[in-house]
Amino acid sequence: MIPRLKDVSPVQSHYLAFIDALRKTGFEGELNPDYANRTVLATDNSIYQVLPQAVIYPRHRGDLQRLTRLISQDDWQSIVISPRGGGTGTNGQSLTDGIVVDVSRHMNRIVEINAEEGWVRVEGGAVKDQLNAALLPHGLFFAPELSTSNRATIGGMINTDASGQGSVMYGKTRDHVLNLSTVLLDGSLLETGPVDAAGLDDAKSQPGLIGEIFRTVDDIHLRRAQDIDAHFPKLNRCLTGYDLAHIRDEQGRFNLNNILCGSEGTLGFIVEARLNVLPIPKVSALVNVRYDSFETSLRDAQTLMQARPASIETVDSRVLELAKGDIIWNTVAEYFPSAAGEVVSGINLVEFTADDNATLEAGVKRLTDSLDALQGQPGKCTGYSVAWGNTAVNQIWGMRKKSVGLLGNAQGEVRPVPFVEDTAVPPENLADFIMAFRKVLDDEGLTYGMFGHVDAGVLHVRPALDMKDPEQIKTVRRVTDAVVELVKQYGGLLWGEHGKGVRSEFSPAFFGDLYPELQAIKRAFDPNNQLNPGKIATTQPELKLLAIDAVTTRGDKDRTIPVESWSYQSEAMYCNGNGACYNYDPNDAMCPSWKGTRERKHSPKGRASLIREWARLLGEQGHSTRSLATAEHRRIPLVHWLPRAWNTWRRERGDYDFSHEVYDSMAGCLACKSCTGQCPIKVDVPEFRAKFLHLYYGRYLRPLKDYFIGTLEFVIPWLAKRPFKWVYNGLMAAKPVQWFLEHVAGMVDSPKIHRHQLGSLMHQLGIDWADAEILQGLPARERERSVVIVQDAFSSFFDTDTVADILRCLQQLGFKVWVMPYRANGKPLHVHGFLKTFTWVARRRQKDFAALAKSGVPLVGIDPSMTLAYRSEYVKYLDGAVTPVLLLQEFLGQRLTHIELQQGRYEPGAVKLLGHCTEKTNAAASMKDWQAIFTALGLTLEHEAVGCCGMAGTYGHETRNKGTSATIYDLSWRPLLDTGSEDDQWVATGYSCRSQAQRQQGISLKHPLQYLAGRFTG
Questions:
Q1: Domain of 94: which CATH number?
Q2: Which of 286, 565, 567, 914 has the fewest C-beta atoms under 10 angstroms from its C-beta?
Q3: In-domain check, residue 234
Q4: Total structural domains in the chain?
Q5: What is the pLDDT of residue 238?
Q6: Angle formed by the axes of helices 604-620 and 658-667, nearest 10°
Q7: Is residue 604 helix, strand or coil?
Q8: Residue 61 pLDDT greater than 70, yes or no
């Protein structure tokens, strides 16, 4: 069965007509009313899920003006729209049942940098870290710091008036906004910034919405200035959205920026901003202070502030323990030592920055002297460590930034969720407030993790709930109401950092008799209540604000997914929307398909959303994915060919099936497994993708390329024999065959079989095939220096000389090398959803491993991706009973004492390692082994920060992916290799990486051990 959508409703028809009318205006961006785009943007980083009618991606401000001019016409005043940036909001700010307008895909340029005057102009869709990367060569940075800085857009930061770590020193986003350009709902462009009396008079006299806006806001200030001053608490976080308290700045100038900052897209589209930027502190240090209780860490923060640090962040024991189980811990573990028996239940991270070492050291000394004097006393720390230098500090802040996502990485159905996670109270009240907050949660029987900005009095807490349980959803209301009363009691705010969004229901009570003034501002900007309605304020008293329990949650939708489907594809079900996969950084491995396309459906979050909806729609028809998969395993392919051919013909004819939209997203995945290693929730796209393809191709015919890829591992030993090798290579080089492969079979640039056979090269090296009986009969001393190399098809048959050089290097290092007879690994089968065959291959391969493993001789693989399949895919399909197969660096890293004895036999040299995505993210700890190996031999190896090469197995050889593969390569590999000097020596561990560099740039990269073999002097 296939998930089908219901007939188009009158509302949908109206929106489709609007989309068609917008297209006719000359709109140049993308207009997407398809179900896949709508599904992917139905969620953000909150507990809510609201399906929009369409998603549009404007290409420039002209598109936004076309949109707003059209929507303000009488025929379309029932259409509602919502701006969206990175989609990292935790309160549903950008969710809408109208049209999502995503400015991040195209409107993301850094327009101008004026380093001399210290400002920058950027478009609203630019990412915060993208901006700071551009500012780095100028020694400048945009100060407001966020845990989501690698995907949060500048427009989103402005719309939530974002702040985070270091806000006591640097303030909020609005403190750095100089000018804004905003498209209003009549298509006009509003330019805002501080204006004097004469400028204000001119602005008030303008026609249309612009004049009405200036007149309205100025009138509010003139009438209510004293009331406003008396009403709002004096906090670092102050007030987000429609900031009445700062209509005029400290110099008395009228400034609409302070109304727009924090307005959550309810007033207009911020298309460009001129921002203040600051010099980067030259040096930094972080003092990591440990406590035996979380309460102690909170109460001690006020004492720590006396040392005048740049910022203080706190983390509880739950977050710390989650970090220890994540890839991020490999980079920070050394900075968190603890004595035997020491209980660490809270940590304060105290940062100092300066422009010279003397000032930095003096600041750190102020703190450490007081810590030394009081350490171990009741209510004080139990120990501390100091991380010196920007690299170390940034690594620890990277762990702290990941805390939000890590809290969601729990086991079972009860998971931490955001709904009361950014309260703010005066810092001196924070400890008492948190103790009262914890009592609320404890009384409800909830577990939770806490962290926050103790210097600013801001707390982040995520209570754990099963949002599929209707009874537990009621807890959201009870806890929220209790926390609202607590923040009143302690003089604070419910929304100190992450905005109002769905929590806007509390606005009237908080603003009191000033709330009608917010409504007046909303009316002036948005007369017909079309911009992100229901958030912050409405245009009329009778129009309701959104409420926390009146908006559909993800749990409401997830509850309707069959339990069997939920468990069968659990790798997709727990995505909490944190958006870590939207990482902008081209030198980071996370999700190359997202970086290469900038389409959110080609991200782990997008793919997880699509799988959940696909499984839900199947459930509506009475099917579970597990039952369908079981049935598919039992089918005989040839017998089932005819119905699949019929369905395929109907698909080509244009019959709609949501599965096709899901397929398009899944087919764009490289299966590099970066998501599995880097996602805080451990969303595993390659796994649930394989399961989807297994079912999809149970209904539709496979393309020829899948059979070519799936069978290659099995036939390659025969093709490599003479004369088949010459026939195969000749055919691959023939133009007609290349045309057929590209246009019919869907494959490009198929590799040639190597001219040498591994067996003959092994004979030259005196290396034998591994045999279980022979290995078990070896003397103990010989077994200790023996190693069995596990072959893979790509290395052994397409890169044979590299394999021979690796074998030679291992011999040079003093090891007795054996080679396991070749058998298929099966990873390509898994990637393309041949799960029945893959399971058979894995079982067969495991029997081979088990026989050899009895000897105690280590099994070691060459290609990282193929080798790591044994500990990931094999484990899942063989119930965990898998013989370990080590990576080369893991094997050698365990034998450094032996390797050091060979040091004098190698010429000195220095190389830069371009790591394989799967290796860097799924075996992160092993990457340090490469440095240790080279150091032991007297050579130098550095890890080069680089993203995905764009190949990832066979991805780059598939016709449909050819362009995206090259785009991904161009993001980080091409500029790196283009700008390298002639003296640079690059090495790469992955076969696919080396072949991609050759394919794209004609550069031949060596394997690290191949390089070492060339430095051997004997």
A1: 3.30.43.10
A2: 567
A3: no
A4: 4
A5: 61
A6: 150
A7: helix
A8: yes
